[in-house]
Specification:
This protein is an all-alpha fold. It has seven helices and no strands. It has one domain.
Length: 217
């Protein structure tokens, strides 16, 4: 395909951005630190890392759009994979907004609030966390299903990228099994591991596209 390298770069940059986000992602204790200066520092990092993630989401979708164009618009699997990822991307965008743009603002207000207001804000923060977790669960399932579909397509369509298809199927299959079995915790560490595993596959796919090896149509 003519613009394979552009889509490959989008994959690589988007995936690396997600990895950086999870490496520097602050925890709840960072945002509610007793030291005001440290708490504000954690809030700035939260906004910065989540802003980076929000920037990377459309980049990753752009990369998948390139893979979709490679396989052709007449492929039902390609269409299903793209729709699944779009659905998942919207969910993780919402999760990032609640976690990285709303929560830091609430924790900042808690630092100077009186006891009654602080208690109210704490309850709101907990509700905000539950919303974030809901959207994150949708992303885990939706993106995993999407990658499984992409992996099946890649395995079937390209003799050069069968390993990428196998890796994607294994990573996403294990992720789904772990999630539904209750072993995949969606805290910073658990979701970070999930995002890192997906990013490895995405970078491999990006490298494949960048080298302009053509998938058989």
């Amino acid at each position: 395909m003519k613009h394979s390298r552009i889509y490959g770069i989008a994959f690589i940059v988007g995936a690396l951005g997600m990895v950086i986000t999870m490496i520097f992602h602050p925890t709840g204790s960072d945002l509610l630190h007793q030291n005001r200066e440290m708490a504000q520092r954690g809030e700035m990092i939260a906004v910065a890392t989540h802003s980076l993630a929000l920037f990377c989401i459309p980049l990753l979708f752009y990369g998948f759009w390139g893979v979709y164009k490679k396989f052709g618009k007449d492929s039902p699997l390609a269409s299903a994979a793209l729709v699944s990822y779009l659905f998942a991307a919207f969910a993780v965008m919402c999760a990032g907004i609640f976690s990285g743009l709303i929560a830091p603002n609430v924790t900042n207000q808690m630092l100077s609030a009186d006891e009654s207001t602080r208690k109210l804000l704490s309850e709101f923060l907990h509700y905000n966390f539950l919303i974030n977790q809901g959207f994150t669960k949708v992303f885990v399932v939706g993106s995993s299903i999407s990658i499984i579909l992409w992996s099946v397509l890649i395995f079937k369509k390209s003799k050069f990228a069968k390993a990428i298809g196998i890796i994607g199927f294994i990573i996403s299959g294990i992720s789904l099994l772990a999630f539904f079995a209750g072993h995949l915790k969606l805290d910073v560490h658990g979701f970070g591991l999930f995002a890192f595993a997906q990013s490895i596959w995405t970078i491999l796919l990006g490298i494949f596209l960048f080298t302009q090896q053509k998938l058989k149509a």
